Amino acid sequence: MAKIDFLKIFLTLFEVILGISATTHWVVTEDGRIQSQLDSVFQLHQPYDLFTFLEQEGYRNAISALYRQMVTKKAAIDRQWANLESATDVESRLFSTDPDCLLAKKKLVDIDLYASIVTNGSFRRGVAQKDYLLDGIPTDGKKKVPDCKKIFPLDFSLYTFEHLSAMRNRKNLTQHQEKGLIKYLPPGTDLNMFGHQIAHGLLRNNTSWLHLNLAAIYWRVQGDSYNALECGRRAIVTAPMRYRDIPLLTTGGILHAAKHSGEAAIILHAAIDYAPTQSHQHLALGHVYAVLGDFNRSIACYDNCLRLAPTMDQARQTKHAILCEKKLGNYLSSLYLHLQDLLTDLDAYLSQQEEWLNLERRMVRVQATQSSYVKAQSATFQNDGLNSILANRGQSCMQRGDGDSVLSCDVATGSQTLAHNLQMDITVSLRLLKDVESQAQKINEHMIKSNSLHANKHLVSHSSAYTLERGPESFTMFMGPTGRPKYYDHEITVGTEEYEKENWPEISDCKRRSLLLSSSKQYVPVYLPPENKGFATQLFVTELIGINSGQEHSLPWYPPNCQTPKSFDQKYIPPALLTASFGNRLADSSLSHILNGLVKDAEITEIGQRILTATKSKVAAPWVLSMLASLYWRIAGKPKNALDCLQLALDTVPNKFKDVPLVSIASISHKAGLIDDALKIVEEAWNTNSIEPHTNFLIGLLLHLKGNNTGAIYHLKQTLRVDPHWMDGEGLTMLRGLACQEKLNNNQPATSLSVTSRTTSNDQTGVKNRNEPIKQPSADRSGLQRSVAAIMRYV
């Protein structure tokens, strides 16, 4: 029994010993000296340098830990990449297996959504063939064409949608020849003869809505949208209410063919209101909504059409093609997001690789060179002996020389071999990064192509048409502020509020309230909106892109990605901040109300697409749109993407508005725990504009974290003096908490801070003196006046 117990103990100790791994850095020479091995990190140029000796172990441990992280991350990246399908694979699989795609038989981009749809009314009850009066028309002589303007003067009518911009500018409309409408004419009809007959019919009865509608069809076949609209307008006015849907269908088709699909939808809705049981109107409206990218409404229109006319194959095929396209869009959008996440992980991995190499270089820099080591030991070791020692380490030595003996060694240590392998891995990672970026770009191009449908040569969506119609020069006025700053000519003065009193708050009040003082050290995200400078950002994502607040942007919705800058300004965005910002972090959801305020009842993802559309359309100053994009990414919980946008904003922002991006960068630095960096950045923002409550509030938060409650209280009071209701009262609550904390710590009345004495001081200490609030810069008033004068030039 004792032997069994002893054996168990022995095996346990043996297992523990097997689990121990160690590296020998020291050897004992023949003369009894203890020294480091040849390839040890402790083999230094200056072995007597204690601090360098101690740093080497730190470098070695950091490299080992970083390498383990890299191995784990690379394995995760490989798994993600292996599980991703390419865009081509997704598309092929969907079109070969999905029921809707199989029923559609063709892709949506291959379906003509501008197919001509009209009706001449001949099948409607109450319309007889004799009403057309196309018989007995002279065929000799010069052929006439229907001139509706001359036959029936009509300047204005409430029934003809004169408020629509396309209708007002109908002389400038262009469209293709609609040869497809010939099929609605009697077989064998000569187009010139058809126009001649209509012209004579109008001479007999210039108010015949049937002839006016036929005249509009004639001009559509000819590709003359202006004359077609003139005839359509008159047909609408003269048609009885029970037939008015027919010329409305014709007129809506004209605007749709002229690439004004949004206004065509308005007219077609009116046609359906007059005759909700006519299938052609629903079919035409479905095509219009499909072109506009509003697939949900388009499918509803096709369903209505099929209920009224179950044999309408055109509606059925287009409906299934749209359902197929929606599924493809969802798959590709999901794949696109996965690729974006993979890109972020690859960026982080490459940064770790660079950091690893930097640490390796710093560690190797202080090591003794192999040649100096060999020279020092040449009296002890012979060539063969040294060569045998190095044989197992990928090293070899040989003796050369003419006269003098020179020992030359080709040395490749374990760390150097690892560095070489890592350099190869960087090359592989960069190749993978390019593959991922290429795949994401292909998906983006595919989605844009799918969304634009047949309108790649013309504008299809209402927003794009609006942007092109106005042209880039129309947005020049929005490159600067269009209104006065929110705190225009504002001067901070001491008021009569409760917190301005000498003994506020009372110690008894502090004890009675039992304030949770620790809550003031929590992170509070801060975003200085460009609206404070007079920029109408709400217009940038609504009217200037042609999509009002009550409307919905066409699908698909993409996030407002900012191109990664070639380099970051390390004064504001140092490597430490970038490293801390990689990957997903907690979202700054408390800022979401700012984006929601731009577009009423819109989802954050839709607002992101609106920002992207505004950026591509160049409707406003690029730095302002980059600020909106950075806000989106902060709300999404991706500060690295936000920093990409903020660097773009820094590149183009005028100096007088530089505090806007700086406050956001300082707030992200605060979130990353880089308090000193955040204070330096927000100090520069404060020197640009010392009135902004966002800046003063952030300074107050940061000074409190540094233990400077006096300075924090001062800047929180400055915040409330400008905006008494800051954060719906949270600013006052935080001020009371800090003031109580000071009073309870000092057990004496807190000294009220006078803004007057501080604003007149010429002392400018900045954040370097952590025991004082940031001082007002000298001649601040004159600087403010200069800013006001500059701003007024935009108003």
From TrEMBL:
<dbReference type="InterPro" id="IPR011990">
    <property type="entry name" value="TPR-like_helical_dom_sf"/>
</dbReference>
<dbReference type="GO" id="GO:0030041">
    <property type="term" value="P:actin filament polymerization"/>
</dbReference>
<feature type="repeat" description="TPR">
    <location>
        <begin position="279"/>
        <end position="312"/>
    </location>
</feature>
<feature type="region of interest" description="Disordered">
    <location>
        <begin position="749"/>
        <end position="782"/>
    </location>
</feature>
<dbReference type="InterPro" id="IPR019734">
    <property type="entry name" value="TPR_rpt"/>
</dbReference>
<feature type="signal peptide">
    <location>
        <begin position="1"/>
        <end position="22"/>
    </location>
</feature>
<dbReference type="GO" id="GO:0015629">
    <property type="term" value="C:actin cytoskeleton"/>
</dbReference>
<dbReference type="GO" id="GO:0005737">
    <property type="term" value="C:cytoplasm"/>
</dbReference>
<dbReference type="InterPro" id="IPR052630">
    <property type="entry name" value="TTC17"/>
</dbReference>
<protein>
    <submittedName>
        <fullName>Tetratricopeptide repeat protein 17 isoform X2</fullName>
    </submittedName>
</protein>
<feature type="compositionally biased region" description="Polar residues">
    <location>
        <begin position="749"/>
        <end position="768"/>
    </location>
</feature>
<keyword id="KW-0802">TPR repeat</keyword>
<keyword id="KW-0732">Signal</keyword>
